[in-house]
Every structure is written in structure tokens, then in C-alpha cells.
Amino acid sequence: MSNNFSPTRHHPGSPVGGFNPGASTTPSSTVELSFSASNLINADFLSKSDPFLVVEQRHPRTDLRTEIFRTETIQDTLNPVWQKKLVMEYRFEERQQLYFSVYDRDSTSNNLEEEHDFLGRAEFTLGEIVAKQSAGCTKSLIDGKHGKISIVAEEMLSSKEEVLMKFRGKKLKKMNWFFAKSDPFLEVSRSTESNRYILVHRTEQIKRTLNPSWRPFRVKAGALCNGDYDRDLKFSVYDWEMTGSHRFMGAFHTSLRKLSEGPGSSNVYDVLSEKGRKEGTVELESIQIEIVPTFLDYIKGGMQMNFTVAVDFTASNGNPNDSRSLHYRDPSGNPNQYMTAIQSVGEIIQDYDSDNEYPALGFGARIPPDGMVSHEFFLNLGPSPYCHGIDGVMAAYHNALFNVQLYGPTNFAPVIRHVTKFAHAYQNDPSNYFVLLIITDGVITDLESTKEAIITASSLPMSIIIVGVGCEDFGAMDELDSDDALLTHGNRVAQRDIVQFVELQKFVKRGTNSWSKELLARDVLAEIPDQVVLYMRSKGYQPSEPRPSPILVASAPIKP
Fold first, then answer.
1. Is the pTM of this model over 0.90?
2. CB-count burial class (<10 Å; 0-12, 13-18, 19+) for 264
3. What percent of the chain has pLDDT over 90?
4. DSSP-derived 3-state class of residue 112
5. 279 by DSSP, 3-state: which?
6. Residues 288, 294, 299: CA angle, nearest 5 degrees
7. pLDDT greater than 60 at residue 207
8. Are 347 and 385 in contact (CB under 8 A)?
9. Residues 386-404, buried b or exposed e (16+ Cβ, 10 A)?
10. What is the pLDDT of residues 375-388, one digit of tens each?
């Protein structure tokens, strides 16, 4: 293996961070994986396939295969180059088995097995991908008639810089006949050591113009040039076609160092065709390079994460005396799926909640003393919702399970609004951020009201994690987790994506109650850091100065 990937970096004789004699650690590096495919099966009749890629990872101890990544969908192409990247830790001494499956999107559902055409799959270890580095690792797809997938890995350097750029074109080539003009868009790619180019960003297409002005776009400097301001960047101009066979108009080359000089004659570029003929110009209209705080910067500055747990007690979960119920009260003491979810997710979130006090709610049950239906009751059935630690939440759950009657309907909006009240109190104070964890079987009856509540919460310091238990159709949950487009309801649009949906069953080993804690942790909290940073940036909040650590003075015995 080439030495370009360095599991550890230090000069001989210099101290290594995190040195812990008597312990062990796995050398690791952060790598970015870029994906493309070629010669895919055409699964559509009147057009070409609309491919997207799904990546799964096998957990070495539990043998679970869990989805860890999904690309965007590219319309009408058999040779997709996906823009979305997978960033993960490469652990030098561990065999990290990855599975790559390509599908043709046929609906908005995230259900892979029933809703989309399977086009083929391939298996790699992360080690063999890393070994090929920028040259790329290519394999033929199996379980499909034909097609190949290519993966390029690059070790990423830590960078807090982000680049905001805006470009416009002038007198571009007319690619369409008669009176029609072109529909131009830009693709930005970075070069690799093997003279390949990796797609970094693709702009929107501007309809019917030879003088487009593209919207500003933001790119992390690490993704754009990986810390090398002199790295070659290629800007390609295409004429968008409905068939997916976009026509190349021309390209130009530059670097972040040159772009950082700002608008002016040095950043006006000739768009050159494959034959070297000038096909118009593209010029830089504006650029900003700024240091963006990280989630950890806000935590170090004293921001508190406040978690609230809400448990679904509706009748759709089944009678607790029935072994098929998700709330089954097993006489042997084996945990039901709700207990598994509370315990496993609780072990993750407790590391981020400093006071170890958790408001815990229930919804969808008839509660004592008079049997009134409640969609927002304290899980411990007491005067305060707070439970001490995850053990306290578990005790409150057991108490509720024996003292409430599962009923319905399944309304999420009340518990969302409950937490929204607290988040609203801190909308002008960056010291607190709120996370609502909803554990449910997924059968929701107030979908429209829930959308309204989520859109309202999207402007506040708040995120929502939904953990689905059981094997119901979680299509509604996928709709709320709007990764590809902001959630809408009527004329209202969410200010940001604040919902993360995780299906517990995917992490539980079949026939057992064991789960992959590491993979579950990554999925449960995967979007929270970016959601926190996006909110803080939208409000212009900077991290506070890190709190000083207490100074410990070692004293020696006074000699007589």
C-alpha cells in the first residue's frame, strides 16, 4: 500500500497526541469516497434509468449489514457521476466490509425492496479502495446483466474553511437549433494525483439563455481542494437535456488561490471546447472564504444539549400481554422493542446531556386516574417530567406500562409542540439546543399537523430524532425526514431539515435482542452536528470562548 495514506502522522521523537501507555488504539484516517457507475441496465421503457447508490457496512462482531449512506438520484442516465460523497474513518488494522447496490428510482419512497428496480451490486473492503487511492477501484456489478461501479478514495485533511462562490456566463455557445437557446449548468471538479477529476459540485441549469447567472453555492474547502489552494480545479459547462444526455460546451481550469483574488480580469475565463475553440466566457462574480465553527466548537463553548424522550403508547403496538406486542411485558424479563430502543439510544445520548436529567413523555394512552386520553403525559405519571438518567427513564416506562391503557390515535404534534415551547425560549440565546427523541411504531394519524409543527420548530434551536420499532411501513417517517428537499405543507416551507429517522430493526441481529451500538449511534446522531451548526450560522451565533479548565496545583510535603 502506498504511503500516501498515513494512519498516523508525527515526526520521529515528537510526542503523539492521545498517548496512553498500557492501552491500545487503532490507527485511522478520514477518507472521502466518490462514486460513479457506467453501462448500467436501462430499467425504464420511455427513458433511461434514474440511478442512485446505497452503501451498507457489515459490523464485524454482530455480522449485521446496515445502510450507512445513500447518494442523490441522477435522472435519465446509464453512466451516473454522483456528487454526494461518503466520508468515513479508515481503520488500518480492521477489515471494513462495504456493500454497494445501485437502484433505479421509481418513486419517492425509501423502501428499496418494493419500490425501486435493482440494477446490481458490488462488494469491496475499504482497504482495497484506499489502496487504489486516486487511481480508483472499479468492479463489475453482480446480480445484474451488466454495469460497473468505480470508487475513488482520498484522505481528507481537517479544515474549517468554507467557500461561497457565484459565477455567471456570457455569450455561451448556442447548442439548440432555430430560436431555442442553451440550458447551461456548471460542474466543478478537483484534480487527483492520477490526473482524474472528482466531481465536487453541480449547479442548477438556467433555462433558455446564453448569459446565465447561477445561484451562489457553498462548498467546504476540504472537499474543493483538500487544503491545497494550488490544486487544479476544472469547471465544465454543459447544455442540459431532458433525456439526460447533456452536451459538453467547454471547460476552463483554475485554482482556489486564483479564485481567492476575487472578481476581476484575472477571474474571467474562456470556455474552451474539446477542439480548443472559445465558446463564451465564465466569470467569477463573488467569493467568500470563511472559517466555519464546528459542532465541537459550540460544545466547548458551553452549549448544552437537552434531550427529551417521547414514547408511543397507542393500541397499534399490540396488547402488552401478547408476546407479539412491541410493548410486551415478558415474564422472563427479556426487553421488548421499546425497552431496547430506550436503552440503546439512551446509552448514546447520555454522553451529550450534562445534567443527566431527561424529560420523558408518553402519548396516545388513557391515563389514570380517570382514563382520559392524553397525547402528552409525563412518563413517570408524576408532577414533573424529569427522570434521572436512562435508568430513571426505564423505570418510568415500566411504571407507565402497568398503569396506562394503550389507546390512540397516534399524534406526534403535541409532544413536538411541548419541546418547541422550551426551544422558543432560547431562540435568541445560543447556550441551549433541544433534541426530541420519539420512539414509535410508525403508524401516525396526524401527519399534516405534525408537518406544521416540524416546520414551526425548524426556525428554533431544535432537532427531532424518530426511532421506528417493529416492522410497519415507515413511509410517513421517511416523508418527515426530508433529506433531499425541505419539508413543505401548503405554502409553508421548513427553514432547515431537523428530522432524522432511524429504523431500529435494521440494527438488531435477527433472532436476538443484540444490536450494533456503534452503527446505531452513528445513524441516530448522524445529522445532529450539522443541524446544530446550520441553526447557529443562520442566527449569526459564534461559539463562546471555551471554558477554562480548573488549574490543579500539585503540592509537595513541607520539609522540616
1. no
2. exposed
3. 61
4. helix
5. strand
6. 145
7. yes
8. no
9. bbeebebbbbbbeebbeeb
10. 999 999 999 999 99
